[in-house]
Specification:
This protein is mostly helical. The protein has 11 helices and 2 strands, in the order H-H-H-H-H-E-E-H-H-H-H-H-H.
Length: about 325
């Protein structure tokens, strides 16, 4: 478990000595540097994979390249891990992404392509110890359910075609993965936890879209492109259920010190508040002020929560 602390404040309060503070600062700098490097490598791997797929102009050739990169990376990790392990892992990440793209083009069926991509990404994540690939597994599963993203000039788009199914699938998968993490250690635990966290985000995405449009579960398969927008579950059902789910999850997370979940609840709680406020009350000056005040109150509450463990405890007489 990672713990967020203010080293200078702990030192001023006399809870740690100067030597311990120096050790914590050194470790923090090393961890921050490692995170930055991993982000840089992740974006580089994605760019290389996208470029290779575009350059080959052939899904079959891309698939061969993908398999070759995975095999080469696995061989490098197995035999030269000390000096070239990081490079081998990068090759495997690139190979998995290229292979998923190639099979997506070859199959041209979202459901089958998404499931196969999830299997490729999950297997390669285990072999390479890649949190990036582990985090992409839930996204691949969501693509099988019709989820997607889009971008055009200054506009981003998130598509969740089956909100109810998305919520159910990732609530079950996230909970199962969380239970499994309790039995694991090391990199395997980290990979499973990454899967759990992305699943939590997708559950909230499902609630968000459902709270705007309502849902008719399974319409993607029943009606396809002829779906007329008729809903069997109202948007208000999602509004209320999402609020209750956030309250329950936030309470549990705060009681058990689960900082990621606390911050996720805070983020989506604010999104929920603003979305419903403006959808139903409009964006006039009074509602903007009221929404801002409510958000500040929520932020202060979570700020106090994040600082409570830093307060010095009175010694027992």
């Amino acid at each position: 478990m990672k713990i967020l602390v203010d080293v200078d404040e702990l030192l001023e309060q006399g809870l740690i000595n100067a030597g311990t503070a120096d050790i914590l600062r050194t470790h923090s700098l090393r961890d921050t540097g490692t995170t930055a490097i991993n982000l840089l490598l992740a974006f580089g791997a994605i760019a290389v994979a996208a470029g290779l797929t575009a350059l080959t102009q052939s899904a079959g050739l891309s698939a061969i390249f993908g398999l070759a990169f995975i095999a080469g990376g696995w061989f490098t990790n197995k035999n030269f891990e000390l000096n070239w392990g990081k490079l081998g892992s990068i090759w495997m990440v690139v190979g998995a992404l290229v292979l998923c793209g190639a099979f997506g083009v070859l199959l041209d069926k979202p459901l089958e392509s998404g499931i196969l991509a999830a299997m490729i990404l999950g297997g390669t994540a285990y072999l390479a110890g890649s949190r990036l690939l582990a985090g992409l597994v839930p996204l691949a599963i969501e693509s099988a359910l019709g989820g997607s993203t889009g971008y055009w000039t200054a506009c981003y788009e998130i598509v969740v075609r089956e909100p109810t199914i998305t919520i159910g699938v990732f609530a079950v998968l996230g909970l199962a993965a969380w239970i499994i993490t309790q039995r694991l250690t090391g990199i395997q635990q980290a990979l499973t936890l990454t899967f759990t966290r992305v699943s939590i985000i997708l559950v909230n995405m499902g609630f968000w879209i459902g709270s705007l449009w309502g849902d008719s579960p399974g319409h993607m398969w029943r009606a396809g492109d002829t779906y007329d927008g008729t809903t069997t579950i109202s948007a208000m059902f999602f509004v209320v259920t999402w609020a209750l789910a956030l309250l329950g999850a936030g309470f549990w997370a705060a009681q058990n010190g689960r900082r990621f979940l606390v911050n996720t609840v805070a983020t989506f709680g604010a999104i929920h508040l603003y979305t419903q406020w403006f959808e139903r009350l409009g964006a006039d000056p009074l509602t903007v002020v009221a929404a801002g005040v409510a958000t500040i109150a929520i932020g202060l509450a979570f700020w106090r929560y994040n600082r409570r463990d830093l307060q010095p405890q009175n010694p027992t007489p």
